[in-house]
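Hi there. Long-time user, first ticket. I'm pasting a complex I've been working with (about 319 residues overall). I'd like to know whether the download I got is complete or cut off, because the file seemed smaller than I expected. Thanks.
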Amino acid sequence: MSGYVEAGYAVVGVTLSAYGVWMSLRTRSIHRAVGPARAGDDGDAEPRGWR
Amino acid sequence: MKPITPARATRALGIAALAAVAATVALGLWVTPPDVVQGDLVRLIYVHPPVAWVAYLAFAVTALASVLYLWPRTRSLAWDRLAGASAEVGVVFTALTLVTGSIWGRPTWGVWWTWDARLTTTALLLVLYLGYLALRRVTGQPETRAKRSAVAALVAVVDVPIVHLSVVWWRTLHQSATVLTPNIQPTIHGSMAWTMLLGFCAFTLVYAWLLVHRYRLETLEERLETEGLSMALAERRAEAAERVVAPQDPADGRSADLRSADEPVVSR
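Hi, the file is complete. Here it is re-exported in full:
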């Protein structure tokens, strides 16, 4: 293949992975900042961030 | 407020998205044949139109959630959070649409970028939603912010049909629609069509997974914003209370931790 095809697939994969990791890290950071979530909060669903 | 999906369902969604993307990559890179005209470059269409579709979908969800926020009967900040979460995911996919299109355009057209109607309206779409996200960051009462964001989302979404129909309305360098043609007759067949269809499903699942997580993050950020100040005040009060109950030096009547660090402690 030409290299352009691989580059296109790589850009999509890397960008979406980086976005997912950023969300996970941000979620953890906020959990640390606000402390343990109250029972029934939305934050309870993902206390460890990445799933 | 309850989670929008249980963690198990979210995990299943993530696994399904990952498996669908892996299958799309395998079929797109190694199973489908090269095109008669485009050669191997055709493999980029298993990625580029699906990410563009997700951008459309994300902005449509943002517009719908904005309408539901503005509608008095359904007004809830949950719709505003959904609109914001979907717009951010949409911006990521719009950027990917531009980049993958540019990567395809360089060997096909000879240029990375041209001010073609489709490309220009897509770039405008990206700028509009970056502006929308910036507007959401402007401080203010949550209700005021939600209302002005909802109006901005409804203005920005007007560009979505313009982007899609730009290849019909104007003479452009960009090829016309392959699947979502005006008469819904796809111009792609066989294993190429199935792989492309799988790509649409795969990236839609990825969008759904990202949206669920971004929505939760949006909820946490809102909680951090609203509770941050009260938590800081509570901490300061607790510290003050500790100092009051701390043992005091009978000589000067001050609490031990109120003395400066370099002040000598006199033993008696």
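A couple of notes from our side: Chain A has one helix and no strands. Residues 24 and 49 of chain A are 5 Å apart (CA to CA).
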